[in-house]
Protein: ABC transporter
Amino acid sequence: MSEPLLTVEHLSFGFRNRVLYHDLSFSLAAGSVTSLIGANGVGKTTLTKLIMGQLKPTTGRIIRSPRLRLGYVPQFRNIDPEYPLSLRSFVALNQMQRHLPWHSKQEKAAVTAVLKETGLSERADQPLGMASGGEKQKAYLAQALLTRPNFLILDEATASLDVNTKTELMTLVNALNQRHGMTVLFVTHDLDLAKEFTQQYLLLTQTGYELRPTADMNEANMPKELRPTVEVR
Ligand SMILES: Nc1ncnc2c1ncn2[C@@H]1O[C@H](COP(=O)(O)OP(=O)(O)OP(=O)(O)O)[C@@H](O)[C@H]1O
Structure:
């Protein structure tokens, strides 16, 4: 296994009198693809905030490799059909450290490259508001890629997309992993997606955690609300 990009050591964290994790330790190797699963409210988003440095551990520590460059893709939110920016301009919003009020040639080339990488080139000049759900989510992904991350956090990025669109987005994420060795942490409630598109899963529960290969996942042992619904006839 290659060196870890991220190591969590004996992490404890909670809000007021509710402890979310106690003595959580794991590391994520460069190039690994991990799903972060657990019941509602167990602390998945909070863990991503700790990883991104937006929250500080109560005890323990989070060691970030000097090579770590984080990118974040938020949960899918629909965008107003009247939203005026094109996909290209929306993606370029992530070029925040500009010294000039216009985009340089290199900046424009970087936007064109991430649009191509995410399969959005042909739609680039259409208004984002008119794009499909999958295209909108790919635009968020392209925006995150613009900062040249080597570790992508997808926070329920496929929730509320239809099955084909979820699959398409995760296929794209896996291609980024294959092509660039992108490390991925995919927060999800969807065990099928976790099994199909991630190598290992980090399950958070109220009493502990486990990090295992998805090939060893036993759905019967998963928290009830994560198990696929079985239709009762
Ligand atoms: N800023 C905050 N102050 C106090 N409590 C918080 C804060 N942020 C989150 N919480 C609580 O911490 C717990 C974990 O929240 P978190 O959003 O990390 O869970 P989650 O596993 O991502 O849930 P979901 O699957 O529903 O998105 C929840 O009970 C939540 O209400």
Remarks:
- The pocket of adenosine-5'-triphosphate is lined by residues 15, 20, 38, 40-46 (CB under 6 Å).
